[in-house]
Design brief:
six-stranded antiparallel beta sheet, globular, about 525 residues, binds flavin-adenine dinucleotide, 18 helices, alpha+beta, five-stranded antiparallel beta sheet
């Protein structure tokens, strides 16, 4: 068995992730292998059978901003030992990994083989693949390549009772075999098959009209018309609430560092929206359509006047788009860039194109300036992640931004917005002092109004970061009672004793999360508490 810790220090350290919550675990386990995970879950199940449930929370690097990497019971910490690349097949591009593997390390290894994993989050250097799978993470490249779910081909998962299963797309015949098993796995397949059959109409209408989504459970992609069945898409994005992942097989893509970057300035939000919609209609979607707004540029200029000097034009535009093409054929890339330039001639106030890597790096600083803002402190106030990841249908992009500006104006707070414009998945973090009652109350007021706005526009409360504890109270509002009920039944099937990350995703109210709120917020101590393997 790997190390087990109950020290006050360890428990205090794992009481926070990158969210606004605080919840110390009872003990911390660093599993050495799948058998350790299996034994821990079996132990928890047996206690639960005797009415003494102890929850299990899996943890990667704890960069989760929704409070999903916190739990009051056993914390299973993966990066210490279960952090290997198990296999890489250069021919098929498939890579098999353990969940505690650092995402940045995997990316580096893949790149040396001319491959990469496109849906990487911007936190890749500090986070694990297991966390990305559990959150269905996505990032700047997802506009072209899709989210994590699109890249996970199979999983090894430890179920609540300690049984290990392998998931991949099963043919109808293979499914029938599973349905006949006398194990918990068999029970799970039978119950889900029945649920999907009974709630066919509800499940078919459970997809939100957004291009990426980490809210709820992906119930719509398990069963396909040909009768095939796969639990993999369900586990991706489930935040450790249905089972614990011990291994994953992922697809990768060809990596091309030779790209074309276009930067366009806009004075009108409607014009920016028209350009985004036109860019998405190109024969090939750009590999990135990122944005920052003028407020972000102005705030960053105040904090660090040198950072964007000579990079951004004056007067500051209302919005800047950064658009990249990565087609491996140079002439194709050129052609696409030319078409994009035409779009900008029509809608943007100015634009420029860059193919030289060093100059591109300078321009990317515009987008990366958001990190300066997030790391900034204003007295006791800090940028806090409470409304940081909403997404809406792309044709609502301008309305979404206008709604955000109105909301902040009403609250007499300054606002800055950045993110994945090509998916209308925007990031923002209000500056609040959580040590003050007023700051904490404001956080909840903003959440209430912001999530109402996102839902009213037909969007999702989270494009990538997950529901966790933070957004779980809005899940039934987002999906409606019928779909929420399917989620509830699903959770009950996998986790009858509610031992898998309880308080995350399902059955959570605002009153449940209020007492967990931190009275300070910082990420300072996060990355330095791993035992050496
Ligand atoms: C500055 C910053 C920027 C970010 N940018 C992005 C971004 O661009 N895109 C994005 O999607 N996210 C982003 N995030 C959120 C987060 O970093 C990512 O979702 C990341 O993938 C989480 O990985 P982690 O290793 O830190 O997971 P953790 O925070 O440790 O855990 C995340 C979730 O995964 C579960 N989990 C971990 N391991 C397992 C396992 N083996 N089995 C089952 N469940 C498991 C946990 O229980 C938890 O629910 C950002 C966060 C920060 C702080």
């Amino acid at each position: 068995m790997g190390e087990v810790m109950t020290s006050v220090d360890a428990r205090r350290y794992f009481a926070t992730d990158s969210s606004i919550f605080n919840l110390p675990p009872a003990l911390v386990v660093y599993p050495r292998n799948e058998n350790d995970v299996r034994k821990t879950l079996r132990f928890s199940w047996q206690l639960a059978e005797r009415n003494r449930a102890i929850p299990i929370t899996a943890r990667g690097s704890g960069t989760d901003q929704s409070g999903a990497a916190l739990g009051s019971g056993i914390m299973l910490v993966f990066p210490a030992h279960m952090n290997r690349i198990v296999e890489f097949d250069n021919k098929s591009g498939l890579v098999t990994i353990e969940p505690g593997l650092n995402y940045g390390k995997l990316q580096q290894t893949l790149e040396t083989h001319g491959r990469f994993l496109p849906p990487y989050p911007s936190s890749l250097e500090y986070s694990t693949i297991g966390g990305a799978i559990a959150n269905n993470a996505s990032g700047e490249k997802s506009v072209k390549y899709g989210d994590t779910r699109s890249f996970v081909k199979g999983l090894r998962v430890v179920l609540a009772n300690g049984e290990v299963i392998e998931t991949y797309r099963l043919s109808k015949r293979e499914l029938n075999k599973k349905l006949g098993l006398a194990t918990f796995e068999g029970e799970v397949y039978r119950a889900i098959d029945t649920l999907l059959e009974e709630k066919k109409d509800v499940v078919e209408h459970s997809r939100l009209l957004v291009t990426r989504n980490s809210a709820g459970y992906d119930v719509a992609d398990m069963k396909q018309k040909d009768g095939s069945f796969d639990l993999t898409p369900l586990f991706v994005g489930s935040q450790g609430t249905l089972g614990i992942v011990t291994e994953a097989v992922l697809e990768t893509e060809t990596y091309n560092p030779e790209t074309t970057l276009l930067v366009a300035n806009f004075d009108e939000l409607q014009h920016a929206q028209a350009a985004i919609l036109a860019l998405r209609e190109l024969p090939e979607t750009p590999s990135a359509i990122e944005m920052v707004d003028g407020n972000l540029l102005a705030q960053v200029e105040r904090i660090n006047p040198n950072l964007l000097k000579d990079i951004v034009e004056k007067p500051l535009p209302k919005l800047v788009l950064l658009v990249e093409f990565d087609n491996t054929k140079e002439h194709q890339q050129k052609k696409l860039a030319k078409k994009a330039a035409k779009i900008f001639e029509k809608y943007a106030s100015s634009h420029r194109e860059e193919t030289e890597r060093e100059k591109q790096e300078q321009l990317w600083k515009i987008r990366e300036a958001s990190a300066t803002l997030v790391g900034h402190t204003d007295g006791q106030a800090r940028a806090v992640p409470v409304i940081e990841d909403g997404i809406v249908p792309i044709d609502k992009f301008a309305e979404y931004l206008t709604g955000i500006y109105t909301l902040f104006e009403r609250a007499h707070l300054s606002v800055a917005v950045w993110g994945h414009a090509g998916d209308a998945n925007l990031h923002l973090q209000p500056f609040l002092d959580l040590s003050q009652v007023g700051g904490r109350q404001m956080a909840f007021r903003l959440m209430e109004e912001y999530y109402k706005l996102v839902i009213s526009l037909g969007g999702s409360t989270t494009g990538a970061h997950g529901d966790g504890r933070l957004r779980a109270p809005y899940l039934s509002q987002l999906y409606g009672a019928e779909i929420y009920d399917v989620f509830k039944k699903l959770k009950q099937i996998f986790d009858p004793y509610n031992t898998l990350n309880p308080g995350v995703k399902m059955n959570v109210s605002i009153d449940d999360i209020k007492p967990l709120m931190r009275h300070e917020y910082s990420l300072e101590h996060l990355y330095d508490h791993m035992p050496r393997s």
